[in-house]
Amino acid sequence: MPATILRTALPRLSVGPGTPQPAGATPVPGGVNFAVPAATAAGLRLVLFDPDDGSVRTEIDFPAEHRVGTVFTMTVRGLDPARTHYAYRVRDARGSLSAPVLDPRARHLAGAGPWGRRPSYRSALAPDTYDWTGDRRPGIPLDELVVYETHVRGYTRDPSSGVAHPGTYRGLQEKIPHLRQLGVNCVELLPVCEFDETDNTYVSPATGEPLRNLWGYNTVAFYAPKAAYATDQAPGAPARELKDLVKALHRAGIEVILDVVFNHTAEGDRRGPTLSFRALDEAGFYLLDDEDRYVNLTATGNTVNCNHPRTRAFVLDCLRYWATEYRVDGFRFDMASILARGTDGALLANPPLPEAIAHDPVLAHCKLIAEATDAAGSYQVGTFPHHHRWGEWNMRYRDAVRRLLLGRPGSVAEFATRLVGSPDLYPGRGATPSVNYITCHDGLTLADWTAYDHRHNEANGEGGRDGIPDEDSWNCGHEGPSDDPGVLALRDRLATTALLLLGASQGVPMLLAGDEFGRTQHGNNNAYSQDTPRGWVDWTRRGEDRGRELFTRRCLAFRRAHPVLRRPDHPDGRTPQGHPYPPVSWHGDLPGRPDWSESSTLLAALLYAHGGDGTVPDCVYLAVNTGGTDRAVLVPPAPAGLRWHLFADTSRAPHRAAHEPGAEPPLDGDRVGVGAHAAVLLVAAPAPALVSAPAA
User: pLDDT tens, 686-696?
Assistant: First the structure.
């Protein structure tokens, strides 16, 4: 039966058999091949749009005889791929046709930009040609990785960013010199797949204006880059600008990890829009209960049926596409516990999808990081199926640092375990599966963690009830901004101490963008809807807080200079024959006398790596005082031929709190003062003392 061509606004078209792979729309000689997996559809129709005004030009039924298995295929000759905008209409068992829906594998969505305009989506082909000449993936080992989490728009949207292209891929590219100077070697980008920022139902309590979905955790198209992040929204242009960003970051020695959202989609529950999957393969792509209602384990209205065979194949294809077409270096999986749930929604002991991702040969170079929770109460930190490939956002580390610095009972012993890479969570796997962080996009910034006891989310229009209720934060005696010198000094101590601990911990450190210079969200700990200065990075803070940035840069440089701080294996307390110290030893006010009591407020650790072959041992000593009074601590003797030098003392103002690595002044005597709510970090260096340099 020949294909039915309706609305013949394109009379030169002809239809022939297609091929089922690759899925999606693919240019072929003389036209375009369409291949659409749609297991539950009775029929399918192709809709072709005018690329200039979006009006429907032609509709073509997929011939039944061209169907291969459950894949609808045909080749349409006479189409110009560069001007092909299209959609599908799905015929159900009753013969009814759906409204036009998107191709789940569309590589570009026309009508998706610029930012803030209600989209009128159409699938479009985008040129795959890009000149990657000279590009090399940095291939940074996990033990050397320093991750910097940021958002493409929010990072440079504020006028204070000073870039020529604010809020775009190009704007972020302009900030590469800052990233290099800081010492990070990996950026983790919040979602860059196409999403609709106008889908937020809340309004600003102050103005009544609709709030935007700034972060983008509501994917519309998994293969298409966010068009509004580009300076040019034409088909192919956003892809080119994102590839330019990846290539430029690689040239600077910086890897790129994408935050991907395979746990839910922008279709929501049945009240939401039908965009693609709901019409093409609802039961395969979403979890449904016995009455065909959406199972909501993500607090978004729907849950992706990740371990259904067809959905699993889609996810793998999508990851391979980004790893090859965009040459990204890894993925962070939002609410990754959904990837571990079966088709009935229950957690699986050995879920197929995480295993398939871990062993996929195309993804073998990619870093894999799980947010090992979901909104239904699953908490798999330390137990997410890893297959010796997956790392995790270590929330236990975050909570342990915060509780330690607030002097909470039992926090000293808890943080000691986190400091050495969480061997209780990752036994036999080493320290690198632990992605250590103190702050991330979810929650308070580091500056706000020291300035607010409570969340202040009223601007989100949800009555201030959204966001994390309790973040183990401390306002240091005054809620919000303060000009009290004592309050400000205490906040500085807490923030710089937290940064020092992050740099000194085994595992992979992750910084939140702007924390290096005191970025604030004014107490908002759920700024997903704040496409405002509140949710953007304010770069004027950089000028005001150069001391904290300098301190952060020196901490990261010190970490690079001392492999003892980034060992891939967990250090233990056994002393090898001929060594003066074990890989880690614990101390207190006196050497070898740690205080593990519930009320302890002092943690001291000596980390040692034997030099061998006549090289100098790598040895550092860390002491943290979480109490309210200063302490004088007796330091263990330095290894033979070495002398203790002071790298950092966070009781000092941030610009004076750390020295340049290699220029640390010698410690005067065998005791070191550890200020209240502060820490010191010493390094053993050869005597005579190194020539000291100013800390400023």
Answer: 975 444 444 54
Query: Which residue carries 């997956």 as its tokens?
Result: 390
Which H or E element spans position 548?
Answer: helix 546-561
Q: What pLDDT, on the 0 to 100 scale, is given for residue 4?
A: 65
Question: How many C-beta atoms lie closer than 10 Å to residue 388's C-beta?
Answer: 10
pLDDT digits (tens, 9 = 90+) for 349-380: 999 999 999 999 999 999 999 999 999 999 99
Contacts of 236 (CB under 8 A, 6+ apart): 108, 126, 127
Cα 558 from Cα 541, distance rounded (Å) = 24
How is the chain split into domains, by residue range?
A: 5-100, 569-686
Query: Does 688 sit behind a cis peptide bond, omega within 30 degrees of 0 on the bond before it?
Result: yes
Backbone angles phi, psi at 140, to 5 degrees: -75, 125
Which CATH number is 5-100 given? 2.60.40.10
Residue 30 DSSP symbol: T
Instruction: Judge whether residue 631 has pLDDT over 90.
Output: yes
Matching CATH topology for 5-100 and 569-686?
A: yes
Could you give the CA distance from residue 165 to residue 435 in angstroms, rounded to a whole number? 31
Crossing angle (nearest 10°) for helices 395-405 and 411-419: 140
Paired tokens of 196? 């609709």
C-beta neighbour count of 551 within 10 angstroms: 28
The first and second tokens of residue 100, run together, are: 């036009």
Q: Are 647 and 628 in contact (CB under 8 A)?
A: no
Cα(569)–Cα(233) distance, integer angstroms? 46
Q: In degrees rounded to 5, what are phi and psi of residue 548?
A: -70, -40
Both tokens of 306, joined, read 């990740």
Tell me if residue 297 falls in helix, strand or coil: coil
- How far apart, in whole angstroms, are the C-alpha atoms of residue 69 and residue 92? 17
Q: What is the pTM of this model?
A: 0.96
**Annotated catalytic sites, by residue?**
334, 371
Closest by CA position to 685, among listed 664, 669, 657: 664
Residue for token pair 């580390």: 397
For residue 510, the surrounding DSSP H or E stretch is: strand 508-512
Strand partners, 16: 75
Residue 1 has pLDDT above 50, yes or no: no
CATH architecture for the domain at 569-686: Sandwich (2.60)
